[in-house]
Amino acid sequence: MRSRLATAAFILMFILAGCASEDSVKQAQASADAARSQAQAAQAAANQAMQAAQQASQAAQSANQAIQTANQSAQNAAAKADKTDADVLALNQRMDQAFQKSLRK
Predict the structure, then answer these.
(1) What is the tally of structural domains in the chain?
(2) Distances (CA, A) of 66 to 58, 62, 73, 78, 79
(3) Each residue of 26-58: b (16+ CB within 10 Å) or e?
(4) Is-above-0.70 flag for pTM?
(5) pLDDT tens for residues 40-54?
(6) Which residue range is the domain that position 40 belongs to?
(7) 83 lies in some domain
(8) What do you get for the CA distance between the two ends of the chain, in Å?
(9) Left (φ > 0), alpha (ψ -120 to 50) or beta: where does 82 sit?
(10) Is 98 inside a domain boundary?
(11) How far is CA 37 from CA 8, 10, 29, 58, 64, in A?
(12) How many CB atoms lie within 10 A of CB 103?
């Protein structure tokens, strides 16, 4: 009887150990699946961030090019304004000379 009881206890312990192992494996698999899912979500977020950074870089390059174009236009306008000022000054001098000449007569 004792041997049957010992055998039954041993078999029960073996079955319980097997169940515990299966539960442990299931828990480990669930943890691994959750970690994989989180890693995939993190990778997707990183990919989106990288894409946004690339778009921002392209926008910054476009803005820089627009600034350079505007700067060149401003320099051209300033050069034309300087020429116009010189032309107006020369015209004023000629008119003054003509006026002075007309006063002498």
Answers:
(1) 1
(2) 12, 6, 10, 18, 20
(3) eeeeeeeeeeeeeeeeeeeeeeeeeeeeeeeee
(4) no
(5) 999 999 999 999 999
(6) 1-78
(7) no
(8) 153
(9) alpha
(10) no
(11) 43, 40, 12, 32, 40
(12) 7
